[in-house]
Design a protein that fits this description.
Alpha-Beta Plaits, 10 helices, alpha+beta, three-stranded antiparallel beta sheet, elongated, SH3 type barrels
Length: 407
């Protein structure tokens, strides 16, 4: 059918005798381009109308298909129209550029097809991870990895088909690629290590975008922003971007605090030795308070016990878990728990201990500030001198003891 149309157009150019041949060719080429523009405009509006119609249905993928195909279809219309115009011009022109019409059409068709598939993959990715479009959106890291892999497969396949269309042997290209791949593998082993490291991250999923991660082996801690095929971008808590090669994660331990089930409160609180009589009641009240606290997970380990006789205090261990794992609410809950423990201790007339020392002096030893002003006899200078000499030679000893009394 296309050949018949082209034959009819060429017959009109040859038989119509009002204008010169150059003018007739120019008019036909202009008409073909103008007709292509008109058809492209109509096709674009038709697909737009279909998009609006199908947007009212519950199926999201028909919308994605139409949206992905709209621009490539318009591009295909332009490609076909320009090809016809170029064929008409080629029949009456010896220009070298027109000899590539067939190749350009084939390459253009492959490009349009690949463009459509890539747009469809992008639309599908957006649907699968959107909480607004899916009741249970899929994990972004997994979908992104599959999307990248699909795009890579489509592009590589398209390049091989295009080379075959241009007259190159695919078997030769693959053989060259195998030999060249060995050389490239030795030259870019770190790059390949990072690539496979990224593949392992996508496969094992120790973390995903948005997780808080840290490594006890390296100075790595922050929120994951992007997982690429070579680098993983982590935003540290002081808002600096940290770029970590993916191969690093295959050799280090990685913690993922974002996947904690609870957060832990672990404190040691000391009371005075003078309050040892209230120890049992204080421990029982603290335990009861934690068991009835609405933000404490009583299903997890909960320990409140008299722990040890410390140097300046009687220590109580408080070990429990909060229901929330969020950083800011956790500290608010911890503050509330500590304040309630303080109120319990004060309610028994006890006090929280702090390091103290008690100084014991022997009888008869006075501090210099405690001497009375009237004890000095100015008339007995010799007697005072002897007393002063004896005071200088006297050695004063004192025992220093640590105790739990807060004095």
């Amino acid at each position: 059918m296309i050949g018949d149309v082209m034959a009819m157009v060429n017959g009109w150019i040859e038989n119509f005798g009002l204008l010169s041949e150059a003018w007739r060719v120019g008019i036909v080429v202009f008409a073909l381009v103008f007709g292509t523009a008109t058809v492209a405009y109509i096709v674009s509006h038709i697909i737009g109308a279909l998009e609006r119609k199908f947007s009212q249905t519950k199926n999201l993928f028909d919308d994605a298909l139409l949206h992905a195909a709209r621009k490539p279809v318009v591009a295909f219309v332009w490609l076909q129209g320009v090809y016809w115009a170029a064929e008409v011009a080629h029949k009456y022109s010896e220009a070298e550029i027109f000899k590539a019409n067939e190749s350009v059409l084939q390459i253009g068709f492959i490009f349009v097809l690949v463009w459509s598939v890539l747009r469809l993959i992008k639309e599908a990715e957006g649907i699968l991870v959107s909480p607004l479009k899916m009741k249970e959106p899929m994990d972004y890291t997994t979908v992104n990895a599959v999307s990248k892999l699909s795009r890579a497969v489509v592009i590589i396949t398209a390049v091989l088909i295009a080379m075959q269309s241009l007259g190159y042997s695919i078997s030769g290209v693959l053989a060259f690629g195998g030999v060249g791949g060995i050389a490239v593998g030795f030259a870019a082993k770190d790059l390949l290590a990072n690539f496979f490291g990224g593949f392992i991250i996508h496969l094992d999923r120790p973390f995903k975008v948005g997780d808080w991660v840290r490594s006890p082996d390296r100075n790595i801690e922050g929120t994951v922003e992007h997982i690429g095929w070579r680098l993983t971008t982590i935003r540290t808590f002081d808002k600096r971007p940290l770029y970590v090669p993916n191969a690093t994660f295959t050799t280090i331990a990685v913690e993922n605090p974002s996947r904690m089930s609870n957060r832990r409160i672990y404190e040691t609180i000391g009371i005075r030795y003078a309050d040892v009589g209230q120890m049992a009641a204080i421990v029982d009240d603290i335990k009861a308070m934690l068991q009835h606290h609405e933000d404490i997970d009583s299903d997890q380990t909960l320990i409140v016990n008299f722990l040890a006789f410390n140097a300046s205090s009687l220590d109580i261990m408080v070990y429990t878990f909060t229901k929330t794992t969020q950083w800011v609410p956790f500290h608010e809950i911890k503050q509330d728990v500590l304040l309630k423990i303080s109120d319990i201790i004060e309610g028994y007339g006890a006090e929280v201990a702090f390091p103290t020392r008690t100084l014991h002096l022997p009888e008869g030893v006075r501090l210099s500030g405690s001497q009375s002003d009237g004890s000095a006899d100015q008339s007995g200078e010799a007697s005072s001198g002897k007393s002063a000499e004896k005071s200088q030679n006297r050695q004063t000893t004192g025992d220093v003891e640590d105790s739990g009394d807060s004095e």
